[in-house]
Amino acid sequence: MGHHQTNTFEPNAENFTFGGRLKTLCLVFMGLGVLGLIWSFLGSEEGTKHSRFWTNLLTNAYYFNGIAIAAMFLVSVLTIGYGAWQTLIKRIFESFGVYVWVTLVCFVLIIIAMKTGATNLYELWLHPVAGDTIVGDKINFLNFGMYTGGVLFFFAGWIGIGAYMRSHSLAEDGAADAVAHYQKSKYIAAAYIVLFGVSSSIFSWWAIMSLDPHWYSTMFGWYNFASYMCGMLSMMILIISYLKYKGHLRNVTENHLHDLGKFLFGFSVFWTYVWFSQFMLIWYGNIPEDTMYFVKRFDVPLFKWLFLGTFFINFVFAFLFLLKRSAKRQFLTAGFASAVLIIGHYMDFYLMVAPEPNKIENHGGNHHATEAKGHSLNVSSDRVLLANAEPTGHEAAKTEAHGDAHAAATHEGHADVKAAHGAGHHGAHHEEPPLTHASMGLIEIMIFLGFLDHSYSSY
To answer: Residue 72: inside a domain, yes or no?
Structure first.
């Protein structure tokens, strides 16, 4: 018999102890997050129903929930596809799914607030305006019962199937019937892929797109999916880089990092494709009233800079930085790119949520009212564009469907809005009239750090 070399494994060498300065830093950041939420709630302006608090809670809960379920989706795909390269980092992927418990609590709070009228997040369809035929046509899908039942059902699936998958994965270690557990895990992974494929899109419609039910995009689910994957892969690279720095994951090499970097590069390009296509299809289809999603974000300087900034970070930076092979194989450079992209995609989700609940005008008020001498300018870009169009054919049908309130807009109203904008640009003080209660300041940074730190320590 020849000599067979045996590989020895030291189980304790790979155990990571969460303590010391890292634990202290995590507790500090969590405290900042809680303090930021309290500050945003108590410091809300009168009549806003604490819109800044609910905006931040929804944005962060949705973003980090997407990261958690996307990680379980990717490990499911790799399990089905016999992706052996992910074996050494599989436990990190699987640990992401545990964070869904935290985001579940956040969405339960949102549901309670919807029931009690404590938030205006979904006021447009919770309390629709009489004669609003667009919301009326969607009322069978956009109602409190469907939202609550659907959201809780999805969370039950993400938690239940995810936990079942992790239990079989852990049972493989050192078990005599490890192959049987692995075979069973493939069936569980297939179930999770089906659940994710259905739930990720529908959940994005309920949680985010329904904030303004007058607008819709057929690519919205894919758009959110691309951001989920970019955020998840960035978080994965950061955690692996940190563990490598602390002397763990000894068998993980730059080849594993390279695979994750290629995924991150690819999904960044895919995000850009959907980002552009979502606008291009509206322009190509000649549907001016549906451009309101973009016009709203260009009417407000904060949103305009966020809109352009997310494109620069999530595509230009990601493409140029990760294009070089060596950048994807070095833990320091890949970790830096990942940190930047986590922030960039958070900004993208904040931009999806913030405009509607934080707008100054009443949801049921006159969308064309202009207070020339006041401090607010009520602009609803979806109606302004209709006012400046001559609807014929398909556009005329859509204009009629918008109801009398929408068709009443005139060229004079549009001119007043443009004049007010001009006064804001060229007036004595050169100040833009505020269009929103939204803000990107210290509160947002504190809450984001709290969620980011909690998710990082949970993983």
So the answer is: yes
